[in-house]
Fold this sequence. Notes:
By secondary structure, the protein is an alpha/beta fold. Helices cover 44% and strands 14% of the residues.
Amino acid sequence: MSxxxxxxxxxxxxxxxxxxxxxxxxxxxxxxxxxDMILVGDSLGMCVYGYTGTIPVTMDQCIxxxxxxxxxxxxxxxxxxxxxxxxxxxxxxAVRNAGRFYKEADVDAVKLEGGVRVCxxxxxxxxxxxxxxxxxxxxxxxxxxxxxxxxxxxxxETAMELIRDAQAVQQAGGFALLVEAVPPEVxxxxxxxxxxxxxxxxxxxxxxxxxxxxxxxxGLFQAFTxxxxxxxxxxxxxxxxxFAEYVQEVRNSQFPEEQHTYKMVDGxxxxxxxxxxxxxx
Length: 281
Ligand code: KIV
């Protein structure tokens, strides 16, 4: 898939399917399932490392996880997520760090959080020849300023700010926009008024595609469940059950069974027994 496919999908009304993945196996499952896009989100800080937010996540961690995802999903459009302080300090740092995702992890695009306030960075990254996705609404890296992990754009005034942010991303050269935790009426206005594809996470159905965090979709993340999550599986409980069954079977000598063991070559056990009789151990 290329940016042109995503633009065509917007025009034809075909929805883009997008999940996060942080490792080789999950990425390969996503590719096997036919997902259009994978985001190696800095949500890996919470979903993989057990941090309470995304702030501690580093560039090196993001790059390493992008590399694993690329190996698992060689034919899927992979987006690297720029972590906190990898693009806010200066435009030069933003371009250099976006470039690291391309050079070191072979991503197809990068994403950063913000609208108006990061449009210089978006422009510079796009001018350097990279594909850049803006992310507005609930932006976890600035959740402190937003008063926590809360829905955004619920009043006319804050919705107008989001609409301006969305336009700023498009004008700066963003190739797509992600809108998070925003009422559906507002995301629809944004989607209808932008040429570039507008994807949503917790932004209702009237967008050009949906992103979901794999750990939420699969029921692996237990710390909290945002309102907009539909769990398609409960792998956390299934994993606990599998481990508990294993513990039980090992303790009762029910595992391993004969089918899990290697056989000696025919006649060799008897030879060994004879040898043991001769040689005292
Ligand atoms: O890091 C991430 O997974 C994200 C989503 C929450 C949109 O940015």
